Amino acid sequence: MQRLLTRYTAFYVVLFAAVVFSLLALQNAWWWVLALPFIALSLLGVVDLTQTRHAIRRNYPVIGNLRFFFEFIRPEIRQYFMEGDDQELPFSRADRSLVYQRAKQQEDKQPFGTKQDVYSTGYEWINHSMLPSQIKDINFRITVGGPDCTQPYSLSVFNISAMSFGALSANAVLALNRGAVLGNFAHDTGEGGISHYHKKYGGDLIWNIGSGYFGCRDEKGQFSPERFAERARQPQVKMIEIKLSQGAKPGQGGILPGAKVTPEIAAARDVPVWQDCISPPQHSAFKTPVELLQFVAQLRELSGGKPVGIKLTIGHAWEWFAIAKAMLKTDITPDFIVVDGAEGGTGASPVEFMNHVGVPLLEGLRLVHNTLVGIGMRERIKIGASGKIISAFDMARVMALGADWCNSGRGFMFAIGCIQALTCHTGKCPTGVTTQDPLRQKALVVSDKSLRVASYHNNTLKALAELLRAAGLTHPSDLRPHHIARRIANGEVRVLSALFPDLEKGELLRNEFRQTVFRMGWPMANPDSFEPEYSLSAAMSGLTNTQLPQKNEAAEPVQTNI
């Protein structure tokens, strides 16, 4: 029996069946129903034996193709039959289901008790109060605009994160923007420019400007003040965001192949039709931290005094510190800073960039918040946060660490029908969210999905209000790190204020460095250059004459149990 079952057995069987059924078909035409499939499989076996690309098909003709078939359907099998409710790939079924329920106005309550292991490392909770508060208005808003802003904007604390037309389909953009109108919140355009789909329903826009200057560039790809002013002064544009980097691929530019640069995309980006559209890794409008802030001031003036800010993922700490020092040197501040975590999303990114480049949101957000406190400028600048924010607790956590508002990209994608098929980069999105295929887009009905966008936003704010009531607070701005607790290794518990200590106002101005990142990184920063003043590795190894600041033992924060 063992000798009969060889790697060619399946091929021999289909050949034999093809011959037998073909002979029978010569007697009765009905046998062709069986003969033709086996003839096709026989031809497939011949192709398998003669092709040179796949060794497994040459060694196992016909049956070897099953390996590629099962590999093709593996993601669907895993998602529907094997994936646990709390497995994050990258979002868990529990997270996705929560968005679907809130978007569809379905019951989002659960019976019987938590499914989470409350004694596992990393488990987090918000500490409640004996005196719950009363909250009448859940439309939580903040005012964005510093001392040099003449058109401050009242912004919801929960908004649509930066996603470009081109990465998203036309119907997806329409649904998101109409949902923003219905829910009275803002829609970030992404760096792909302002398309006519963004403008159809008149939803408030945060215009994202990347290194390609799409929508405000000249014929050479350089920043055009005239074209910027023309678009920035449109009433629908409420804020302008200079994108320095994004979480899923910080430090990387991009190219949109000419075949994808349709007339609609070309019009939104101010680029030639059917030609490669390049987004460089770095900006050409500025080269130093001081020049960046001068660019901020220029955009604020050209826009007629609207809020102008920056979006970044933290990388080298001294580069962020250089921007902070430039604020002190010039007295120019952005009206807001959006901190994007390394866990942020993208339509396509190299695996190494997605998995191993950039600082995660919590650490990056806390560094930005503490730096602004340390230089005495926190009151002038609002902070937004983005990176895997789905639920009200996700919002509460980052707002406790210093965020004034939250952005969500993939959360709102789920609201308009995304099923996490992970085919965003192929143009074959099964729900029409991330494709430019006009037939696939038609599956996404704008009138229905826009209602879901507004419902998801509203119901998430309701849930946030319930958390705040339980904690005895009345607004998200009341949240502080001590309100959130986390179980760390060995079963110990810390509040976030112990894991992410505060800085005192003006502390950095007094050269008091209680935390290592400031003690090591702050002296390296130069407001006139993104380059460090010296090599940190060489200084720490004693290979230079640089004297690193000494640790302030008395001021070092002590981590204690609750």
From TrEMBL:
Question: What is the annotated signal peptide range for this record?
Answer: none
Q: Which UniProt keywords apply?
A: Membrane, Transmembrane, Transmembrane helix
**Keyword presence, Transcription regulation:** no
- What CDD domains does the database record attribute to this sequence? GltS_FMN
User: Which Gene3D superfamilies does the protein's record reference?
Assistant: Aldolase class I
Cite the Glutamate synthase domain residue spans from the record. 157-473
- InterPro entries reported for this sequence: Aldolase_TIM, GltB, Glu_synthdom, YerD
Query: Where are the membrane-spanning stretches?
Result: 7-24
Q: Which Pfam families match?
A: Glu_synthase
Spell out the family assignment given in the record's similarity comment: Belongs to the glutamate synthase family.
* Protein name per the record: FMN-binding glutamate synthase family protein
Name the source organism: Paenalcaligenes hermetiae
Upper taxonomic classification of the species? Bacteria, Pseudomonadati, Pseudomonadota, Betaproteobacteria, Burkholderiales
